[in-house]
Amino acid sequence: MNTIVTMPPLVQARNVHKSFDHLEVLKGIDLDVAPGEVVVILGPSGSGKSTFLRCINHLESINRGSIEVDGEQIGYRLDKGRLVQLSNHAIALQRRKIGMVFQQFNLYPHMTALQNIIEAPVGIHGESRMAAIDNARLLLERVGLSAKADSYPRQLSGGQQQRVAIARALAIKPKLMLFDEPTSALDPELVGEVLATMRDLATQGLTMIVVTHEIGFAREAADRVVFMDGGKVVEQGKPEEVIGNPQHPRTRSFLSRFI
């Protein structure tokens, strides 16, 4: 008799609430992400997508609920049923397993592409400079920018800068990659090169959560599509289900603008 081994979720969010002053942005988010899964989150502006992503690596604190990554509660410990925030040092250690790519590239303008990539492995994680450089060159090759190692951000197109930002996030060897609308700041003709890099990562088994409006990417690269609206998960399923045959009226209304 064969035994089926089910891997525990890499990401487990339970009843996540987040408010800014009196504005409730997240209203009880439940979401599991399996190791190696690519989850794309769709939804209108103001639905809480980016806020939820930032809560996963504790760039935003949550008010209620819990988020675990790789079996570890992020940002907090439970004390008699209450969330107690961890120290900044402990949170920084947790973030070592989570890479994040933002809308804006956030590269250091005074550093070359290669220097941007090795900054965190050497300066924060204590990796040897030689090993970090070797890995950075491999990552630049991986994102198609081997020839740009010594270029400064001002010498790169927006798409090239975003691919350097992806390489920089990968340099810490994360278990999870978060993408917060990574193409929204790009000119339309540069979007394709960044999405191609992300598709390549998806095929390599990297666990990814992607907030985007790129419906084509969601259809082609996602294992699961999650639609959020009003701070809640409204609908989720395989891309062909959610995009091809949405069940919720709000999902249908949103997607009708793109399809």
Name its key features:
4-stranded antiparallel β-sheet, disordered N terminus, alpha/beta, 259 residues
Summarize the structure.
With 259 residues, this protein is an alpha/beta fold. Helix content is 34%, strand content 26%.
Report on the structure:
By secondary structure, this protein is α/β, with parallel strands linked by helices. It is built from 9 helices and 12 strands. The protein has helices at 49-56, 88-94, 113-123, 129-142, 158-170, 188-203, 215-221, 239-242, 249-255, and strands at residues 11-20, 23-33, 38-42, 64-69, 72-73, 76-79, 82-85, 98-101, 176-180, 207-211, 224-229, 232-237. The strands form 3 sheets. A 6-stranded mixed beta sheet has the order 8-9-10-3-11-12, sandwiched between helices. Strand 1 (11-20) and strand 2 (23-33) form a beta hairpin. The N and C termini lie far apart (46 Å). Residues 1-5 have low confidence and may be disordered.
- Structural class label: alpha/beta
Query: Secondary-structure element sequence?
Result: EEEHEEEEHEHHHEHEHEEHH
Which residues sit in consecutive blocks of at least 5 with pLDDT less than 50? 1-5
What is the global morphology?
globular
Global mean pLDDT? 93
Rg from C-alpha positions? 19 Å
